[in-house]
Specification:
Order of helices and strands: HHEEEHEEH
Shape: elongated
Largest sheet: 5 strands, antiparallel
Helix content: 40-55%
Number of domains: 2
Distance between the termini: 35 Å
Number of strands: 5
Amino acid sequence: MLTTLGGVALALLVWRPLGSLSYDDLIWFVATLVLFPLMCFFGSFLVAPMLFFSLYEYGARLNGAPFSVGDRVRILVGPHRDRVVEIYELWDERLQVRVNLDPESKDKVKDVFSYNEICREDIWRSSALARQSGTL
């Protein structure tokens, strides 16, 4: 939507009454209408990963990353939500951790959580206290 509006805005900037346009100007006008939105669309594939990965890392930092083995964390999503568990393995290259849930989850590797799906317990507790006191 935004790229289309940008293309239309750019086209309107270069638009002149059709009677005063030469054939070459008309070709440039149509090319601008077609190519500018396409360039914005495909260019967004280059910019979006950089932006979203930065936001992902920022969220992980807010949740207490980097984590280490033995940290107590609160699970924020899924069927184990609000459960406080201990980290027993780190997968730093994938930005994930494994936590002690139960032997079945460990065997089926269902105990893997992303850095954004868990929060260090002391950070969660301090934010909950701030929320209760009305300072947050």
